[in-house]
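step=predict obj=CsbD family protein n=58
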Amino acid sequence: MADDKTEGTAKDTAGKIKETAGDVTGNEDLQTEGQADQAEGKVQKGIGKLKDKLSGDR
């Protein structure tokens, strides 16, 4: 199973792709969805970093 940092990075990257696709096509819904995915991914990465810090991992 992937850890939160890895999954968060994947969501962030997918969000950037969606946002860019929305920009290119003029699809505001896709842009917004991509931005939301990026925010979710960044939060998930932060949780993963916090878990690592609390467990003593780096």
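step=describe
Residues 2-55 form one domain.
step=end
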